[in-house]
Each structure stands twice: as C-alpha cells, then as structure tokens.
C-alpha cells in the first residue's frame, strides 16, 4: 500500500489548533472584574449628634459657594472642623463672624487673617440644630477611592467592554486566530490531496493559455476611446470639486492650548453663549472671552465633579485644564490670591472669513435675532469646538434667500416692509428681497 501522507500528524495539528482557540476563548470570558467590596458600616456619628444628610443640604445651600470639604477655596477646607474649634465658638462664628472679630476674640482674628481677611457672610437664620447638622456632615470621613478592577488596567480608548467584560479587541483577536487556523487547514488539505493524486498517477490537465485581459483591452480601440473620455470627465469632476474646497474649512477642529468643553458649559450647565461672547450683541466680532470671565466661576471651581468624566476624558484631565487656566491668570488656589505672574493663552482661531468679506455679529444676533447655533451648529453638544458651516458665499446667499426679516418691534423696517411687500406681493420679506444680495452689503 502506497503512503499518501501522515494523517495522524495532520489530525494532531488540527486538534491542537482548535484546543488552543477554545482555551483562549474560555480564558477571555472568564476574566471578569472583581466586584468592588464596600464597607456597609455607617460612618461614625459626629460629636454633635447632628444629621449629616440634612447637613449636606444646608452646606450646599449656604456654604459651598466659598468652602469645600477637602480643599481651600475662598475659605478654608471644612472637613474635620469640629476637631479644631469648640462648638459654642462655631455657633457664634457662623451666625456672625464680623461681631466676633470686632469683639477682639483671638481665635476669630487669627482665622480672619489666615484667610486674607475675607469677610464671611453672616447666617443668623441658622439655628444651633442646623449648625449641628452641618458639622455632622463635615465630620464624615473622606470616601476612599474605589479599588481598581482586576488586572489594574484602565479602559483603553477605542474598546467597548461587553457585558461579559470582553473588549472588542479580544473578540477580533479570537476571530483572527480562527481565520488563521482555517487557512492552515486548507493548506494542509491541499498538500494531502496533491500527494494522493501523485500516488495514484492522476495527471492534472494544464491550463490553456489565454490572452491577458490588458492585451485584449488594448486591441479594442472603441473601448479604449470610451474609457479615455470617461477618465477625462471623471478627472475634471474631481479636480473641480477639489478646487472649490480651497479655503473652505468646514469641520475644522483644532486642538486648543486649554481644552474648553462647550458641551459642559453651554450644554450641561446651560450657560448662555452671549455670557462669554458678550461682544456678539453690540459689535462686529463675537470676541474671545477674557480669562477674567472664566474666573468669575472658576475662582471657586478648582475641580470638576466625578460625574463630569467621560470614557475619553477623565476627571484628572479636566482638573488639569482648570489648573492651566489658573497658571495663565496667575491664581494661587492654595492662598486664594493672584500672584501677578500671568501667561498668555495662544488660542487657535477656528472661524476666519476673508478680509474682503464684511460680517457684523450684532446685525445678525441683536437685530435679526438669529440663534448662534444657526451658523455655529449645536455647540452645546461639542466637546471640541469645530466650524459647523462652510461659510462660503453661496451658503450666505442661500440663507438670505430663505430667512424672513424680523419685523416685530423694529420700526426701522416698517415703511420699507410695507412698500416692498406690495411690490413682491408677499406678507413676509426675506433678507434677499430687502437688498441682502447687493454686492456692497458684504463687499466694500
């Protein structure tokens, strides 16, 4: 009997490959994060016997504007304050610190001077019980950071953990391994069949040589002509499209020296666009907000909430951006004072019209009442600000043709509107019908 190959060897190879694949899959699915162990024991009650839950509500309503639990703000950090001062003194200090300082109380004067002589608001409306609740809240121990998941690795950008804890990369890796095993199997089967054919004297019929397709194409003059015309027209189309995009920066989203999230400010916190870009209401330019505008809020907001973090940007990342702001304006959050050492922030401009184009923000924002999102897109959803519209001449003209002029409360347009509405036979006039397409409106 003629040998046609070692089938047992091939079988062992196949079974070994399948076994490795199975072991790899089981290991991946078994890797689940260890459940976080929490201590259900209640925090020790404050010496005052107050209610920490009610104290948190009172703290957020009355104290959080100037104080934090674990960091200095306008006032000192308040966690554990009950261990530093007597309760009778705290009652007097919270209800009216100014009177206590004027009385010459040594401890009150010391606290006043240690905090840059910042005057603390008086809270005579708070009862002793309310203060006990606040002190109970400030006496709670600081929550420990959650233990890292098994393996100690943070989520890698670009991966989405599934319910079983297996990332897409692992699944794709397992599929790639299966594909490699199938290719090896096909190669081995081809070798076995070749050996069987050779052992049985089977001769394969050689392929009949044919004319290469490129030679057949070159010999057909009509097909060459049609193809050439098609390629010329297609090339002209793409070249024209490319040239028409020169100077159009739609979707341009540069990286800024300080990461500013419109999603957090305009979206989550619902800050009006014109609070920061106040010049847009009265000026040609919207203007870049002064860093002092940022400090109106961030003087007391040195870090973001835990819930602000996203899979792409961690809490530490956002806190670092606030620190960049402090460095730029020269703010020392420890002493709550300006150092006088400032650094310029070199913002990267996003929207940039040509010099020969005139555009007035106040005309559109104040007079026309157009929302910022009309031209700048849903900025409240942008983590990184980008150019939403193409800002081309055609885009502006199309808007003037479709947008009705705002007449309510605008006596300047009343007479013009009455005359032109009769001329055009319409009730509402568009910006184009009011002269919005005249060259001198935008080019002068």
UniProtKB/TrEMBL annotation:
Q: Which residue ranges run through the membrane?
A: 170-189, 222-243
Which SUPFAM superfamilies does the UniProt record give?
Cytochrome c, Multiheme cytochromes
Q: Which PROSITE patterns match?
A: CYTC (PS51007)
Q: Which organism is it from?
A: Flavobacterium sinopsychrotolerans
**What's a single GO MF annotation on this record?**
metal ion binding
| Residue span(s) of domain Cytochrome c | 50-142
Keywords (alphabetical) are: Electron transport, Heme, Iron, Membrane, Metal-binding, Signal, Transmembrane, Transmembrane helix, Transport
Among its keywords, does the record have Amino-acid biosynthesis? Answer: no
Keyword Transmembrane listed? The answer is yes
Q: What is the official name of this protein in its record?
A: Cytochrome c2
Q: Do you know which Gene3D superfamilies this protein is assigned to?
A: Cytochrome c-like domain, Cytochrome C3
**InterPro entries named among the record's database cross-references:** Cyt_c-like_dom, Cyt_c-like_dom_sf, Cyt_c_III_dom, Multihaem_cyt_sf
Q: Name one Pfam family in it.
A: Cytochrom_CIII
Signal peptide interval: 1-30
């Amino acid at each position: 009997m003629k040998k046609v190959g070692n089938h047992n060897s091939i079988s062992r190879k196949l079974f070994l490959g399948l076994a490795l694949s199975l072991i790899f899959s089981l290991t991946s699915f078994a890797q689940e994060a260890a459940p976080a162990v929490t201590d259900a024991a209640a925090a020790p009650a404050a010496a005052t016997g107050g209610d920490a839950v009610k104290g948190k509500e009172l703290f957020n309503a009355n104290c959080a504007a100037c104080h934090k639990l674990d960091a200095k703000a306008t006032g000192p950090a308040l966690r554990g304050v009950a261990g530093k001062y007597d309760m009778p003194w705290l009652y007097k200090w919270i209800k009216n610190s100014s009177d206590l300082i004027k009385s010459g109380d040594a401890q009150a004067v010391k606290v006043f001077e240690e905090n840059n002589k910042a005057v603390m608001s008086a809270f005579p409306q708070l009862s002793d019980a309310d203060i006990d609740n606040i002190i109970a809240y400030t006496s709670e121990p600081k929550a420990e950071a959650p233990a890292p998941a098994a393996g100690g690795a943070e989520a890698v950008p670009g991966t989405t953990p599934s319910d079983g804890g297996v990332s897409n990369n692992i699944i794709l890796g397992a599929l790639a391994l299966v594909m490699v095993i199938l290719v090896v199997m096909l190669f081995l089967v081809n070798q076995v069949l070749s050996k069987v054919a050779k052992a049985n004297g089977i001769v394969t019929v050689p392929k009949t040589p044919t004319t290469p397709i490129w030679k057949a194409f070159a010999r057909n003059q009509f097909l060459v002509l049609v193809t050439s015309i098609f390629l010329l027209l297609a090339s002209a189309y793409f070249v024209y499209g490319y040239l028409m995009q020169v100077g159009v920066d739609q979707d341009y989203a540069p990286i800024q020296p300080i990461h500013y999230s419109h999603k957090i400010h305009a979206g989550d916190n619902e800050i009006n666009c014109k609070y920061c870009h106040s010049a847009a209401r009265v000026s040609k330019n919207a203007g870049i907000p002064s860093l002092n505008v940022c400090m109106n809020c961030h003087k007391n907001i040195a870090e973001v909430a835990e819930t602000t973090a996203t899979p792409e940007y961690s809490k530490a990342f956002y806190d670092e951006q606030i620190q960049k702001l402090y460095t730029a304006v020269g703010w020392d959050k420890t002493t709550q004072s300006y150092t006088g050492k400032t650094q310029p922030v070199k913002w990267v401009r996003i929207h940039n019209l040509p010099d020969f184009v005139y555009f007035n923000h106040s005309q559109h924002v104040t007079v026309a009442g157009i929302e910022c999102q009309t031209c700048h897109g849903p900025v409240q959803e942008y983590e990184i600000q980008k150019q939403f519209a193409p800002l081309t001449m055609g885009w502006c003209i199309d808007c003037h043709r479709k947008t009705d002029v705002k007449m309510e409360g605008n006596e300047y347009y009343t007479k013009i509107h009455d005359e032109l509405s009769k001329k055009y036979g319409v009730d509402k006039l568009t910006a184009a019908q009011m002269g919005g397409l005249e060259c001198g409106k935008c080019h002068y």
